[in-house]
C-alpha cells in the first residue's frame, strides 16, 4: 500500500469523531422579529422577516407577490405585518402605539 492510500485509510478511521456541539446549557437565541431599516423597500416587513428567518428578503417579497396574485391575501398580510411587527430600535408596534394613544385620550 502506498503512503497516499495509507493516509486516506487513517483519515477515514478518524471521521467517526463526534462534531463539536454547543454547550448543553446554552441555546441559540434568535433576534426578535423587527421591521428592518436596511434593505427596506416599503415598510421593512420583507427585510425584517428575511433577517428573522435567515433567508433573502427577495424570497419573502416574491411570497407576498404570489399571495397577492393567487387570491389577494398578500396585501392584507403585508399591512397586518406592517402594523404588528415593531420597527428596529423599538419594542412597540404601530398597532400598540395607536391603541395606547386612543386609550389615553
Written overview of the protein:
The protein has 5 helices and no strands. By secondary structure, the protein is mainly alpha-helical. It has one domain (31-104). The model is unreliable at 6-20 and 22-26 (pLDDT under 50).
Kindly list the characteristics that best describe this protein.
105 residues
Arithmetic mean pLDDT: 81
Shape: flat
Structural class: mainly alpha
Biggest sheet layout: none
From N to C, what is the helix and strand string? HHHHH
Which percent range describes the beta-strand content?
A: under 5%
Question: Kindly, what is the distance between the CA atoms of the first and last residues, rounded to a whole number of angstroms?
Answer: 87 Å
Helix count from the secondary structure assignment: 5
In short:
The protein has helices spanning 3-14, 45-53, 57-69, 74-84, 94-104. With 105 residues, it is mainly α.
Sequence-ordered SSE layout with sheet pairings:
Layout: H1 3-14, H2 45-53, H3 57-69, H4 74-84, H5 94-104
Amino acid at each position: 500500500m502506498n503512503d497516499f492510500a495509507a493516509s486516506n485509510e487513517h483519515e477515514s478511521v478518524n471521521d467517526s469523531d463526534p462534531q463539536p456541539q454547543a454547550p448543553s446549557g446554552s441555546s441559540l437565541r434568535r433576534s426578535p422579529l423587527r421591521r428592518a431599516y436596511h434593505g427596506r423597500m416599503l415598510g421593512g416587513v420583507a427585510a425584517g422577516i428575511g433577517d428573522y428567518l435567515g433567508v433573502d428578503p427577495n424570497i419573502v417579497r416574491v411570497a407576498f407577490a404570489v399571495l397577492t396574485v393567487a387570491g389577494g391575501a398578500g396585501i392584507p398580510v403585508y399591512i397586518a405585518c406592517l402594523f404588528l411587527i415593531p420597527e428596529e430600535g423599538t419594542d412597540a408596534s404601530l398597532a400598540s402605539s395607536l391603541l395606547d394613544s386612543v386609550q389615553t385620550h
